[in-house]
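Figure 2 data, in text form.
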Amino acid sequence: MTTSVTLSNGLRMPQLGLGVYLVSDPAVCEASVRTALRAGYRLLDTAFAYRNEAAVGRGIRSSGVPREDIFVTTKLWPSDYAYEKAEAAIGGSLARLDCGPIDLLLLHQPVGDVRGAWRAMEEAVDSGVVRSIGVSNFTTDDLGELLPAARIRPVVDQVELHPHWQQPDLLPFLEREGIAAEAWYPIGHGSRKLLDESAIVSAARAHGKSAVQVILRWHIQRGFVAIPKSTDPAHIAANIDVFDFALTPGEMADIDALGRARPMFRVPRWLLSAVLPLARPRPRP
């Protein structure tokens, strides 16, 4: 059983989930979702751009886990940000997932007609087909433009976040605004430089855990939401096995001290804008 965070709208969101970015084989995606849910996961993260929403829905329906116990996130791609396009895109995601209301709908990137899409997302909340809305890859400046125009405030910002990149400007802003931080690439895309950090290795040895489990535990204790991706049943099971130990204050401080000056994986905005017209993009998570 995972822990959860309470979002600003009162919904509770599990802190640890399964991400399915780049899981392009429908059968593999469906099986991974089913495996994760049966292992105790209750948070799933997909997107239109991942091209696997339908497989996620099938995995949910075949898992035997009650739908009301599962928190499902998907995302709109910027080519659908105009108001009417966003309305249609929301309907498309609902149809592909085929599992009732979307628990969290995110704007995938901070480019395009953000305000038009946000208005469509707010109306989806009003109608009950979406339970909460948020953003992904938004900086403080991006949020500064959205928040004054938002009737319903974003509850989550999903960003690159791990011990090597701790979002030093963004995290204090999110805390002030009551927006939960969610980590994509929570283990730094499996970077050996991160996994081999002495602070992480020593904590893993002390608790009889792996470096990955220590990093995921760090996310939990920092109050973040993390969505590691895996299609390996053993890794899926190991990633959620982080609720039977706690890092000490000293261990947390040592891992906090690993923060670096710049992100590792963020796509430059100019490049993101250049790929906007693609019908089936392969962007950053």
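Caption note: The beta strands are 4-6, 12-14, 18-19, 43-45, 71-76, 104-107, 133-136, 156-160, 180-184, 225-226.
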